[in-house]
Each structure stands twice: as C-alpha cells, then as structure tokens.
Amino acid sequence: ERTRLEAQAETSNDSEPPPTSTTPQVPESSEYMELEEAMSRDKQALLEEFERRRKARSINVSTDDAEVKRNLRQLGEPICLFGEGPADRRCRLRDILSRIGEDAVIRREAEEERKLFEKDQETTWYHEGPESLRIARLWIAEYSLP
User: Fold this and answer.
1) Which Gene Ontology MF annotations are present (predicted)?
2) Quick check: pTM over 0.85?
3) pLDDT, tens digit, for every residue of 85-129?
C-alpha cells in the first residue's frame, strides 16, 4: 500500500486534481503509531492486576481486629482510616499483602527481633569476677589512696 501511494505521489508531481463529490479528501501522514506494542503493554498490566487480585483473594488474614491492626502497624500503614471498619481493615491488609508479598509481616517481625538482639548485645552488663580480681582491685585502691 505504501509503495502504491509513493508511486501515485511521484506521478502527480504536486498537481492534484480538483476534488470531486465522489472522492473524499483524506489527509495523508507519514506518522504511524505502534498499536500492538501499546496494546500489549496495557494488556500485560491488566493481566498482572487480575493476577494480583486473584492472589489477594487467596491470602488468609486474621479475623481478630487487634492482630490486623498490629500487622498494619508492622507494615508501616495507618491502623485505621476514617470511617473504616474491621472488615475494611482486613480487606486493606489483604490488598497491601498482595502488593508487597504475603511473607512481608514475617520478614518485618524477624527484622525487628534482629534489631532488638543487636541492641541487647550493645548494652552494658556486669558479672562477678573471680576472687583474685577482687583482691587485686583492693590492693590497687589501698596503694593509690593516701
């Protein structure tokens, strides 16, 4: 089709026939849009969203509201939005978990435990030393004090 149009353009040499009532004026353009690529990206995004929703339906979330709030807090999300009830919170938690991964709560808990363990390692601690250490310290104290 393109070659036929180019051949027709060469033969006309910029002398177009006057428009008639049977031939409509169609603007010609050399700009083409890649529809298949744009459609495939949109289709892929739509399929990913359907897959995420299917995954969200299969995620088990506790019905205990306190546990749902604790999980939301661990994920750094607000525990309650305006006008939100327990069922809405569970739905929001399920949606968040479908986006970031179901094991995100477990990973966050493990990370917090690791931080607490590291903090505990840094704290100062005391223990009783052997009797020889006590005797040495007493001798140093008596020697250094007048």
Assistant:
1) U4 snRNA binding; U6 snRNA binding
2) no
3) 888 998 888 888 888 776 777 777 788 888 888 877 777 777 788
Q: How many domains does the chain have?
A: 1
For residue 113, is it within any domain?
yes
Six token digits for residue 92: 């929001």
Residue 64's domain comprises 38-125
The string of DSSP codes covering 82-101 is TT--HHHHHHHHHHHHHHH-
Amino acid at 77: E
H and E: helices and strands count for the chain = 6, 0
Structural domain contains residue 63: yes
Q: Which residues of 82-115 are buried (b: 16+ CB within 10 A; e: fewer)?
A: eeeeeeebbebbbebbbeeeeeebeebeeeeeee
The full length of the chain comes to 146
Longest Cα–Cα distance in the chain: 124
Among the listed residues 36, 23, 20, 29, the one whose alpha carbon sits nearest the alpha carbon of residue 2:
29
Residue 132 forms part of a structural domain: no
Domain assignment of residue 6, yes or no: no
Rounded Cα gap, residues 5 and 33, in angstroms = 18
